Amino acid sequence: MEPDTVFQSSPRRAPSFDVIIVGAGFAGMYMLHLARELGLTATILETAPGVGGTWFWNRYPGARCDVESMQYSYSFCEELQQEWHWSERYASQPEILKYANHVANKFDLLRDIRFNSRVASAIFHEGEDVWQVSTDGGEHYRAKWCVMATGCLSAAQRPNIPGLGTFKGEIYHTGNWPQEPVDLAGRKIGAIGTGSSGIQVVPELAKLAKHLHVFQRTPNFSIPARNQPMDSAYEAEWKQSYAQRRTAARTMPAGIFSDIGTNSALAVSADDRLLEYERRWAAGGTGFTGAYSDLLKNEDANSTAAEFVRKKIREVVTDPAVANLLAPVDHPIGSKRICADTNYFSTFNRQNVTLVDLRSNPLQEVSENGLTAGSQFYELDTLVLATGFDAITGALSKIEIVGRQALTLKEKWRDGPNTYLGLMTSGFPNLFIVTGPGSPSVLTNVIVAIEDNVKWIADCLAYLKTRGAETIEATASAEEGWMEHVGQAAEGTLYTKAKSWYLGVNVPGKPAVFMPYVGGVPTYQKICEEVAADGYRGFVIEGRSKSLRARQAVG
Ligand code: NAP
Which atom of ligand 1 is nearest to the CA of 153? Predict the structure, then answer.
């Protein structure tokens, strides 16, 4: 839809919309679709030259989703989910990007997306109740509502290694991989980082490299993905009952239709436990930690699963010293995001692969031709940084977001992010966040979290529109109550026992606050729905007459 005349009374010349959406990933695309259905004018501003968000940038060899493809897709359109065919159990990055483009074309989204437009600032103009959104190319836009669909894993984190800038070879970050083909054949490659991205890229690099050195600081738990071509009977089974399965998925904590154990790991015999772990290991995928109800709550229960995986690693890796280094001991299994791999551990049996333990040989510096760890110099042609993301808040903090009374979001969140339901933050009226801090986001099949958040925002916009409301804003007290609840929910789990990006500790200077809501999809969604049904409890809604305020400001 073209810009309309909502703000024609404004002296500014900037194109004006009802809604500006930042980001053309899965969240932004669905938001645009729903905004149009409400008859609102909307546009997306997107840094990349194409849609797909994190799946546009993470095009490293081996990039693949670890949620099954039958589930890692939109559920809002029956025709879409019936017509699309996934070729593998777990979709590769190129296939997910193809799907994103298919969606953009099917719903005719491209005409309302401004590509190559990195948003530099979003400033709320009090009095006018308008967001002015500006790009680093100097373009300005105005809108009543602004939706940050900027993603949780979209700000790649480059490590602060002395001398990195002096390296003469190529440096590639997995989260910002070049769009043009990269030739790695016959190179001496150094890979830093052994999280989900590292675990996926390492086996592929090993196939290409003359020699691959993997620089590991902390080993991670990983379960074989057991990826395979899509089984046509399995696909048909899903398609026959897609709607019911999507509904059932939303009754499960991670929003994933799966078989979750209801017993304590400690309530069954050691033999039964072993059988269950073997069954899940053979089935493959991150559902492994769903075996028992207390694996993420009780350390004794957790260690039964952790020990099983460590034993598997030792069975696969032939050199016992290397196996020992690859077996994680510093955190409970699942407390950091568990990984799914294809031949990761067996890659260390290859002659052209060397594991370097950075704990005993700390990374000293990068120089023109390589890297020094401990007292050893490693000559390298190429460095692959699989060093992760400034997660959940990183993409937002790259933008200068200014709310009421010139308060910046960066300043407000200096000691950690505060939101109400992860969706809004007080002092920043009419600014919505999709999968924001304080929502289940990264602990779920994120497309479910996205769809639920976006639908909530769209319903909220419809509510505001019918009432002629000008602003909606979370109250400080509702936000405080919600953050307390988010913190308490995390305290009851083992998630806080790991130094993970969930806590932000991978980014120097970032406050250590557990950011996602661990209460699970059904609980969270029920609360969001109740808040809306209760006239948006905990939000202040103001109309032109301001008379709406008294009725809605609760909490
Ligand atoms: P990550 O889990 O944060 O892992 C980053 C790795 O880099 C860690 O091993 C970390 O070591 C290491 N590292 C960072 N800075 C370093 C430094 N200065 N020196 C040495 N090592 C350093 O990041 P990620 O692997 O990109 O994964 C992030 C998340 O993205 C995942 O947890 C997952 O949610 C998502 N993801 C999903 C998939 C999938 O669907 N299959 C694939 C990729 C990513 P320490 O642990 O010691 O800090």
Answer: 30
**Residue appearing with tokens 């483009």:** 101
Tell me the pLDDT tens digit for each residue of 20-45. Answer: 999 999 999 999 999 999 999 999 99
Residue 69 near residue 86 (C-beta atoms within 8 A): yes
CB of residue 192 inside a 6 A radius of ligand 1:
yes
CA dihedral 270→274→277→281, nearest 10 degrees, is 160
Across 496-508, average pLDDT: 95
Sign of CA dihedral 289, 291, 297, 298: negative
Distance of CA 508 from the midpoint of ligand 1 (Å): 15
Of ligand 1's listed atoms, the one at least distance from the Cα of 161 is 18
Full set of structural domains in the chain with CATH? 3-155+391-469 (3.50.50.60)
186 phi and psi angles, rounded to 5 deg: 75, 10
Nearest-CA residue for ligand 1 atom 8 is: 193
Nearest CA to ligand 1 atom 40: 65
Could you tell me where the DSSP H helices lie in 255-397? 270-283, 299-316, 320-326, 344-347, 394-397
Q: Please list the residues that pair with 19 across neighbouring strands.
A: 42, 145
335 secondary structure, DSSP code = T
How far is Cα 322 from Cα 65, in angstroms, rounded to an integer?
A: 27
Q: What is the pTM of this model?
A: 0.95
Question: Which atom of ligand 1 lies nearest, measured to the CA of 65?
Answer: 40
Closest by CA position to 124, among listed 460, 409, 398, 462: 409
